[in-house]
Design brief:
This protein is an alpha/beta fold. It folds into 3 domains: 232 residues, Glutamine Phosphoribosylpyrophosphate, subunit 1, domain 1 (4-Layer Sandwich); 194 residues, Glucose-6-phosphate isomerase like protein, domain 1 (Rossmann fold, 3-Layer(aba) Sandwich); 140 residues, Rossmann fold (3-Layer(aba) Sandwich), CATH 3.40.50. Helices cover 34% and strands 23% of the residues. A 7-stranded antiparallel sheet has the order 3-2-4-1-10-9-11, with helices on one face. Helix 14 packs antiparallel against helix 19 and helix 16 packs across helix 19. The longest helix has 22 residues. It binds 2-deoxy-2-amino glucitol-6-phosphate. 2-deoxy-2-amino glucitol-6-phosphate (AGP) binds next to helix 10.
Length: 616
């Protein structure tokens, strides 16, 4: 399905190269595409006798072109044809495709929209190119001309030209200087190759091909096919990606451990994750990596977030965010489970992989399974160019630099921020108002400073770690947005202070069994900011208190009453309920790190673990 939905129903293109020199074949194939648009039509044929490309165009339906062709009756191969639904430039013969370059060497037909054609056209005119139409498409012919060199394959000039193009295209291109070839390129608009014994076709829709062959290849985005009379090959254009961090980012920079450095980087990680990605006045999230699939996302009816370990806890927060604020059915799936449960997936489902490394095998295989089922696959990844980014259709990078410590900290916080941005992105495509979108973004923007305020309590948190270092069992309780934070707090403690066992449960579950464990030797960390379910959290704390359980509470500044329940309190600043996880996790990361150090453990490389789990 094309990311720019309308681009895929705008025009119809056909191309043919092979033993048949009668372009009538192309006209018959083009008629199968007339439903895609019929305000004008055209054909371009390479004529071997004249060694030039002959072109005919006609305003109106294909019949008009057929009348002209029956008089001209020229022959040759390859040939390309087009039936148009006008987007740029009125229906006219001049605006009909095929379009050519200044020298009439290169002819092409196009389905799609070149979004940056105006600036490209201005630049080309400045360089002396003369235009014959008002269309966006003609720009491509002149751009390819600009990059063409004598003796150089046509596909090289096409590849160069397309690097400057933004928008959607399905193209078929022929050139007098490289005549026994059709170059086809696809991004965002459909393009199918028809494979036959010593003849090849290209078309917008199999309907134009099926009477010649049933062997087809559907081109993927960023693929370029080169068809010659007896062979074809397909190039995959890989976008060039840029590493944005410096070497010193991978050093400790004065900290004793990467784990501490990366926790204290969390306020900066929040900032890097959101900067440049918010249009406050319109309450919009600006996520370039999702723009190309924006039209598809509008049609999505369900999201599956797939991840492992800490990333899965971020995904769980995302589940709550997407459902409450984007009003889209969402479910977190653990990567290693997702693959084998035969989840109900279809092309109305988007699958979002959350992964710091982008190499976690369980998550990667889950995405491959989702792709096989026709889902739109997205990535929320920190490591540029990793396997998951290559496997997904689109996505968002964390942009926070390398995370070296095995236990994830700043990446987790970044994932939460980007999930909040994706919530706004999806929500504003649906029922979310500008006011709500703006409110979320304004509160997100405040978080880096609020996070710094929390980490300024590091000495106090270190003292608490020392105080609790005698205990060997902990429970972590939270509800709604902070239940996944309870899971993360427990995992962090187990991971890096691994002499201690910790478990998390939704606070409401304690009374269904777990509370049997609680006594004065079994402290409980309660994540209970002032939010919609604070009173319910208080009930759970009272249950723990009644069994002499020690309570360490993480709650909102100004909450004095909690002191009657909790033995110790760490305060966090007030923010939106959906954003509290980004703040409530910070004390838990520090608490785990200081406890690990108190126990004399290597908190950067905990035993039995690896930074990226590339085995299933
Ligand atoms: C996090 O502290 C752990 N090291 C582990 O759970 C990790 O989050 C998980 O393996 C997923 O890794 P990823 O984010 O690189 O996919």
């Amino acid at each position: 399905m094309s990311p720019l939905g309308r681009a895929s129903i705008m025009c119809g293109i056909v191309g043919y190269i092979g033993k048949n020199n009668n372009p009538q074949l192309g006209l018959s194939a083009l008629r199968r595409l007339e439903y895609r648009g019929y305000d004008s039509a055209g054909i371009a044929v390479f004529n071997p006798e004249k060694q030039e490309i002959l072109c005919l165009k006609a305003k109106g339906k294909i019949d008009e072109l057929e009348k002209k062709f029956s008089e001209a009756r020229f022959s040759g191969s390859p040939f390309i044809l087009h039936t148009r639904w006008a987007t740029h430039g009125e229906p006219s013969e001049a605006n009909a495709h095929p379009h050519c370059d200044c020298q009439k060497n290169i002819y092409l037909v196009h389905n799609g929209i070149i979004e940056n054609y105006k600036e490209l056209k201005e630049a080309l005119i400045t360089e002396g190119h003369k235009f014959a139409s008002e269309t966006d498409t003609e720009v491509l012919a002149h751009l390819i001309e600009k990059y063409s060199n004598p003796g150089q394959p046509l596909e090289d000039a096409v590849r160069h030209a397309l690097k400057e193009v933004k928008g959607a295209y399905a193209l078929a291109i022929i050139s007098r200087n490289d005549p026994q070839k059709i170059v086809a390129a696809k991004l965002g608009s459909p393009l199918i190759l028809g494979i036959n014994q010593d003849e090849f076709l290209v078309a917008s829709d199999p309907a134009a091909i099926v009477s010649h062959t049933r062997q087809v290849i559907t081109l993927d985005d960023n693929e370029i096919a080169v068809l010659s009379p007896d062979n074809f090959f397909i190039l995959k254009e890989k976008p060039i990606e840029k590493i944005e961090w410096e070497v010193e980012d991978a050093q400790k920079q004065g900290f004793s451990h990467f784990m501490l450095k990366e926790i204290f980087e969390e306020p900066e990680a929040i900032k890097k994750s959101i900067v440049g990605r918010m249009i406050l006045e319109q309450g919009l999230a600006k996520l370039g990596g999702l723009e190309q699939v924006s039209e598809q996302l509008k049609k999505i009816e369900k999201v599956v977030i797939v991840a492992c370990g800490t990333a899965s806890y971020a995904g769980k927060v995302g589940e709550y965010m997407f459902e409450e604020y984007a009003k889209i059915s969402t479910k977190l799936e653990i990567g290693s489970e997702f693959r084998y449960k035969n989840a109900i997936l279809d092309d109305k489902t988007a699958v979002l992989a959350v992964s710091q490394s982008g190499e976690t095998a369980d998550t990667l295989e889950a995405i491959k399974e989702a792709k096989r089922k026709g889902c739109l696959c997205l990535g929320l990844v920190n490591t540029v160019g990793s396997s998951i980014t290559r496997e997904t259709d689109a996505g968002v990078y964390c942009r926070i630099g390398p995370e070296i410590a095995v236990a994830s900290s700043k990446a987790f916080v970044s994932q939460l921020c980007i999930l909040a941005l994706i919530t706004v992105f999806l929500g504003r495509q649906r029922e979310m108002s500008l006011v709500t979108g703006k409110r979320i973004l304004e509160e997100l923007e405040k978080l880096p400073n609020l996070a710094k305020k929390i980490l300024a309590q590091s000495d106090y948190i270190k003292d608490l770690a020392k105080k609790y270092s005698e205990y060997r069992n902990f429970y972590f309780l939270g509800r709604k947005y902070n239940f996944p934070i309870a899971l993360e707090g427990a995992l962090k403690l187990k991971e890096i202070a691994w002499k201690i066992h910790a478990e998390a449960t939704p606070a409401g579950e304690m009374k269904h069994g777990q509370i049997a464990l609680i006594d004065e030797n079994f402290p409980v960390v309660c994540i209970c900011p002032y939010d919609s379910i604070y009173d319910k959290m208080k009930n759970a704390m009272e249950e723990v208190k009644a069994r002499k359980g020690k309570i360490l509470a993480i709650t909102t500044e100004g909450n004095e009453e909690i002191k009657s329940l909790a033995d110790d309190v760490i305060y966090i600043p007030k923010t939106l309920e959906m954003l509290t996880p980004i703040l409530s996790v910070l004390p838990l990361h520090l608490f785990a790190a200081y406890l690990g150090l108190e126990l004399g453990l290597d908190i950067d490389k905990p035993r039995n673990l690896a930074k990226s789990v590339t085995v299933e």
